[in-house]
């Protein structure tokens, strides 16, 4: 947590008092990090947030992040209680990272970025995913039928991309 306070310019030793940090009722564990609209561009702090094994929600939307570190994907994928990831409205580019290790993830928002390529296998294993927003990116290729078969999706946003072909029928139910 010491590194995280540096990124946030916080001096109080109690992270539960920091802006954007939500703790459990007994103030013993951090459950949410909400770092929205902080003009963050260095994504190094993301990996540091993975040291919080009680983390349920991470919202870094509306910043200037350009990448999601591989170490974040590896380390945070091990947090079983992490169910919300919001990276919307950043400057993420390149291909979609592989989120298959995030077994408890229910909500993933990567909208309003510049991610590209296809989305064939990067979301495999997200069987509990209920909401996926990949709109306003540069994805192409076909929309995989696995999105409807392997997940319990209730919400799927794919608007303003360059997908080919038709939307699979399994996604229309």
From TrEMBL:
Keyword Repeat in the entry? The reply is yes
Keyword terms of this UniProt record: Leucine-rich repeat, Repeat
The record's section on Gene3D superfamilies has:
Ribonuclease Inhibitor (3.80.10.10)
- Listed InterPro entries: Leu-rich_rpt, LRR_dom_sf, LRR_N_plant-typ, PRK1-6/SRF4-like
Q: Name one Pfam family in it.
A: LRR_1
What domain of life does the native source organism fall in? Answer: Eukaryota
Coiled-coil boundaries: none
Query: What are the residue boundaries of the Leucine-rich repeat-containing N-terminal plant-type domain, all occurrences included?
Result: 10-24
Protein's UniProt name: Leucine-rich repeat-containing N-terminal plant-type domain-containing protein
